[in-house]
Recover the amino acids of this structure.
């Protein structure tokens, strides 16, 4: 079994606020192998963006990574150990902040954000920004970097790259800007690209183009991707394996076909059932009742039990971890739901519980207001 | 007035839009339209318009949901606001419940608003952050003098409950609610004056998928209970497919196709609709990939293409009658023309280009000569000339450029009418209203040639 | 470990479950006051302004109700007997060429033998009234013009803005003095004149906020609902544009007091014998060397008042800034 490119083990990131501790990421584990696209799926508030920021150690106060391990290509991006007094402190082999900045961020692991207008500086030319990025991260001199930049622009499908090199972000359309960001991410030939909802703000036809382009580029350069999204259709289109997140935890992990055709966790099923589809008319949408609770005070036991159509008494008490539910010889398919036999907690004998009915009635009235991520 | 095309002149229609146009003045400031010139008097005045909505006609029947779908920049939001006269139409008419809204102004127009309401996209900015939710819901009632203070409060609480919120939250501020709940407040507010017609401008686009489903279900329940008519605008075809009875597809200020929902999705007759449907990612890992991607960017609405506006990106552009190429060769010519226009390549050697774009064979006859000329220009780095030849002699001579299409075709799956603005349908059309004077760009549907 | 609370069963973070009680509103007077209380600067500002306003109120009470009776009884005794006049005395504990300071006149006396503390006390009333009234005029006028201008745009905007810019272009002191020369040198005209010159400031503030608020969806929603323009402006536009204006208003009060003091100093404004700080300063000019303490106290009074309002304005700004509150 080959070593994974990126290995995340039991990652915990918390935010210490006046109102309490927000357990935004509460013990997630997943791997990314070379050349694959791994999806990280979840709704607002699930903790996906915090997870990806944590991987790059970009979490700022009041947030802090409080536990877990992150290994990348054999190096430790994050890891704690106990010192003499029993306190936790960073391990010696953990990369320093400057090492992270110089070697990892932008160079070995790149990140693409959702809104290209916010990631590109409006007062500098697009080509200039791209060239600067290349100069810093690849030790090329300005002229070489410029050539490289023009090549990258061409690579991502921007026509007449030499003249567009001197244009400003506002002269590009949304899809073009996103291509520029992808060019910036690819320019430094990273092994891993984290894409945080890059197509959410784009029109469907443009999104389609970008997704096609990304799969082509991925084949060509063998880059791995972590693709963060809330859109299951995008997942179906480009991901190889998928992690489904709910309230700070990964509750299902599978290859993409298994996830859609052999769903193991009720949340994933409910999500798929609640979506209208473009290819067939869905007569009745079945929404998931209620709203995702706040990460400050998650429900007891299984975090989804309050909204789960298949919840039983035992779900309130037992907190399921992620266990392998796949058949012999089949690809790994893990899920965190006690209804499966791998958990021996007496699910079948346990009585069903009443979950919220009514769409959003009083439940989910948040204190700090609105969707939080 | 009987019209061919999406306007059916059904006297029972709640809303009838006819040739609606909304142009925005592109010049700003006092001297914005002034330019410099070489000759006396050395100064020119021009004005450019953004033609956001350019000759749109359709009907909406009582009780139905018309879905309006299109990408960003197609003009759907502008259309919605112009229909409600939140923006002043440049020309055209909107008949609501038989009355021409354009003839109303001031107080009568304001009172009309009781019957037609709007729900906005962003749940956050559509509620005044400084007003409590109860008064927000009451405000339209107050504006139209409905009930008295107690009555309004009672009705507001009733409405909050109807849309799935706790009436006890009457006194809370908007920020205390989640996005989905804020949209429900919007619904309650719109319903407070008992409207007949509600325009929904992307009401669920900003919400998470599972919340979307909740809100859509609520909207459908309310439609049944209160006998509402919806104009539902969205860019998400899945949502449109779920909630609409009929669907209109908009591109660059025009409606390019309008049909019953099943008909449109299963039997699209316009290349843009096809491309749109093809482009959407489907939540099914086993579904196939895409057939053909749309090339290029959406043209500017200031100077839109003549004739059919989609022709600059259409994979099915019709060959001009002057030439006699095979389909493949013609497609190659078009691809080549568009590549030159976008400067998508740097190669200048004619043979290499022929190999790359015309490996099935180059065109012969007049077409061949023109192509050689263009290649010659490219070889000499005269890109503009090459582009001019290719564009003017090929793309611009197509019927797609010279005449604005407007056809009605047979519905294959349903009883309703099927309108498609594409010249490919000219032979199978049951009715047409093609405007040959389309070259000046301000096209309208002309006088009908056939009856309905 | 997940915690077992009542809220766990239905999964929502109910307010009861976490004991937070009523959901905190982020708007409104109560919330603003709460925020202000948290900020030390703001608190100092409030206490200072509060104290000064209290003095002004007491002074008004005394003036209108008791006709100077109370203060007269304490220290502001108009002198009957010319022989008894003690001019230009220094504060208690000090000595100058005119004599020894006594407790009878804790801050000393002015050039006419009147008690400085007493005059200061009454001057507060004038200062505060002037400050508030002038600012009120500017605020109301500027808000109306700015709101209408910003909401409607077009030629209304053009005309109104050109008018206010004209006012703005003329140096305000010149404008006020010209105004007072034309209408009268009295304090009330000083107030009105200063008020008018502050209209452009408020107008600008409100107008720029209105221009952005006007594009918000909830304004369009109100229009779509059929709410009358007048009500949209009053109920939606102005409340949402008001925060920066409030801050400017507190600052403007201090500024107005300063300007009117300056005018009084120049002879426009409070005419003798009205006790106004500016006027007192003006009178003290001639006695700077022999009795420097005369000018000290009115000067300090003005200083503290203006700084107090400035600090309050600062504090309010922080309290009203939604970004900081997140």
């Amino acid at each position: 079994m080959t070593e994974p490119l990126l290995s995340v083990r039991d990652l915990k990131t918390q935010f210490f606020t006046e109102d309490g501790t927000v357990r935004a990421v509460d013990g997630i584990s997943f791997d990314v192998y070379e050349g694959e696209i791994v999806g990280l799926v979840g709704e607002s508030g699930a903790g996906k963006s915090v997870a990806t920021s944590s991987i790059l150690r970009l979490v700022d106060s009041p947030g802090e990574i409080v536990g877990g391990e992150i290994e990348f290509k054999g190096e430790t991006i994050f890891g704690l150990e106990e010192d003499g007094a029993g306190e936790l402190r960073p391990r010696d082999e953990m990369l320093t902040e400057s090492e992270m900045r110089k070697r990892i961020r932008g160079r070995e692991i790149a990140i693409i954000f959702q809104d290209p207008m916010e990631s590109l500086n409006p007062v500098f030319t697009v080509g200039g920004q791209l060239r600067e990025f290349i100069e810093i991260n690849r030790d090329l001199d300005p002229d070489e970097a410029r050539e490289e930049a023009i090549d990258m622009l061409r690579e991502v499908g921007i026509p007449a790259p030499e003249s567009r090199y001197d244009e400003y972000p506002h002269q590009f359309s949304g899809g073009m800007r996103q291509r520029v960001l992808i060019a910036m991410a690819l320019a430094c030939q990273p092994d891993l690209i984290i894409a945080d909802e890059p197509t959410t703000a784009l029109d469907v036809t443009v999104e389609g183009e970008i997704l096609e382009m990304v799969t082509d580029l991925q084949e060509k350069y063998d880059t791995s991707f972590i693709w963060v999204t809330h859109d299951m259709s995008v997942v179906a289109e480009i991901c190889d394996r998928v992690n489904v997140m709910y309230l700070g935890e990964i509750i299902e992990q599978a290859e993409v076909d298994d996830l859609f055709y052999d769903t193991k966790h009720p949340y994933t099923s409910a999500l798929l059932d609640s979506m209208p589809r473009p290819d067939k008319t869905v007569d009745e949408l079945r929404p998931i009742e209620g709203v995702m609770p706040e990460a400050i005070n998650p429900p007891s036991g299984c975090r989804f039990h309050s909204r789960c159509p298949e919840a039983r008494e035992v779900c309130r008490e037992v907190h399921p971890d992620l266990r392998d539910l796949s058949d012999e010889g089949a690809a790994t398919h893990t899920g965190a739901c006690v209804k499966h036999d791998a958990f021996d907690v007496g699910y079948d004998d346990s009585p069903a519980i009443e979950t919220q009915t009514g769409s959003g009635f009083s439940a989910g009235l948040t204190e700090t207001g609105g969707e939080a991520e | 007035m009987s019209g061919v095309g999406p306007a059916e002149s059904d006297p029972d229609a709640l809303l009838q839009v006819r040739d609606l146009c909304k142009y925005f003045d592109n010049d700003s400031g006092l001297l914005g339209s002034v330019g410099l010139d070489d000759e006396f008097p050395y100064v020119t005045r021009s004005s450019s318009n953004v033609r956001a909505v350019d000759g749109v006609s359709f009907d909406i029947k009582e009780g139905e949901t018309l879905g309006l779908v299109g990408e960003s920049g197609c003009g759907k939001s502008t259309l919605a606001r112009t229909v409600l006269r939140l923006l002043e139409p440049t020309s055209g008419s909107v008949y609501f419940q038989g009355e021409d809204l354009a003839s109303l102004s001031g107080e009568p127009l304001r009172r009309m608003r009781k019957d037609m309401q709007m729900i906005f996209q962003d749940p956050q900015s559509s509620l005044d952050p400084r007003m409590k939710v109860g008064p927000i819901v009451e405000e339209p009632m107050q504006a139209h003098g409905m009930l008295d203070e107690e009555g309004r409060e009672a009705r507001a609480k009733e409405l909050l409950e109807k849309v799935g919120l706790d009436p006890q939250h009457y006194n809370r501020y908007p920020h205390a609610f989640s996005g989905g709940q804020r949209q429900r407040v919007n619904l309650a507010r719109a319903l407070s004056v008992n409207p007949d017609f509600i325009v929904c401008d992307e009401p669920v686009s900003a919400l998470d998928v599972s919340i979307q489903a909740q809100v859509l279900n609520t909207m459908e329940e309310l439609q049944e209970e209160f006998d509402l008519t919806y104009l539902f605008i969205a860019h998400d075809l899945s949502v449109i497919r779920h909630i609409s009875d009929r669907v209109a597809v908009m591109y660059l200020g025009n409606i390019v196709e309008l049909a019953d929902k099943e008909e449109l999705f299963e039997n699209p007759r316009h290349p843009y609709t096809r491309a749109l449907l093809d482009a959407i990612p489907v939540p099914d890992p086993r579904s196939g990939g895409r057939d053909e991607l749309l090339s290029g960017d959406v043209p500017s609405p200031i100077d839109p293409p003549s004739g059919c506006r989609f022709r600059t990106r259409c994979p099915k552009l019709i060959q001009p009658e002057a030439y006699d190429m095979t389909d493949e060769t013609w497609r190659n010519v078009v691809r080549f023309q568009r590549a030159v226009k976008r400067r998508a390549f740097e190669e200048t050697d004619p043979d290499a280009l022929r190999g790359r774009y015309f490996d099935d064979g180059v065109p012969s006859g007049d077409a061949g000569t023109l192509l050689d000329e263009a290649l010659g220009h490219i070889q000499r780095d005269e890109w503009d000339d090459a582009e001019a030849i290719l564009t003017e002699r090929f793309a611009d001579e197509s019927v797609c450029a010279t005449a604005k299409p407007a056809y009605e075709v047979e519905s294959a799956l349903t009883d309703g009418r099927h309108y498609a603005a594409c010249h490919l349908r000219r032979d199978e059309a049951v009715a047409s209203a093609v405007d040959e004077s389309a070259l000046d760009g301000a096209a309208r549907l002309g006088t009908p040639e056939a009856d309905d | 470990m997940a915690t077992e609370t009542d809220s766990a069963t239905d999964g929502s973070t109910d307010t009861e479950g976490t004991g937070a009680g009523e959901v905190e509103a982020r708007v409104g007077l109560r919330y603003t006051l709460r925020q202000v209380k948290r900020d030390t600067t703001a608190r100092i500002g409030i206490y200072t302004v509060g104290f000064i306003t209290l003095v002004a109120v007491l002074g008004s009470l005394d003036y209108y109700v008791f006709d100077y009776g109370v203060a007269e009884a304490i220290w502001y005794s108009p002198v009957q007997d010319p022989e008894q006049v003690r001019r230009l005395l220094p504060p208690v504990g000090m000595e100058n060429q005119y004599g020894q300071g006594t407790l009878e006149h804790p801050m000393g006396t002015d050039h006419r033998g009147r008690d400085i503390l007493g005059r200061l006390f009454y001057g507060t009333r004038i200062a505060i009234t002037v400050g508030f009234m002038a600012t009120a005029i500017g605020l109301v006028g500027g808000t109306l013009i700015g709101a209408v201008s910003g909401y409607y745009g077009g030629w209304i905007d053009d005309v109104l803005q050109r008018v206010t810019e004209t006012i703005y272009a003329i140096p305000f002191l010149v404008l006020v003095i010209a105004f007072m020369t034309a209408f009268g040198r009295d304090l009330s005209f000083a107030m009105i004149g200063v008020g008018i010159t502050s209209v452009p400031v408020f107008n600008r503030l409100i107008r720029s906020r209105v221009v952005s608020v006007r594009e918000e969806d909830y304004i369009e929603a109100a229009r779509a609902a059929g709410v009358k323009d007048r009500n949209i402006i009053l109920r939606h536009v102005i409340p949402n544009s008001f925060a920066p204006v409030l801050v400017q208003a507190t600052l403007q009060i201090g500024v107005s007091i300063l300007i009117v003091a300056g005018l009084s100093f120049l002879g426009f404004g409070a005419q003798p014998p009205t006790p106004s700080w500016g006027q007192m300063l003006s009178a003290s000019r001639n006695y700077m060397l022999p009795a420097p303490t005369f000018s000290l106290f009115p000067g300090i009074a003005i200083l503290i008042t203006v700084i107090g309002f400035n600090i309050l304005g600062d504090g309010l700004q922080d309290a009203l800034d939604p970004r900081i509150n997140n």
About this structure: Residues 357-373 of chain A have pLDDT under 50 and may be disordered.
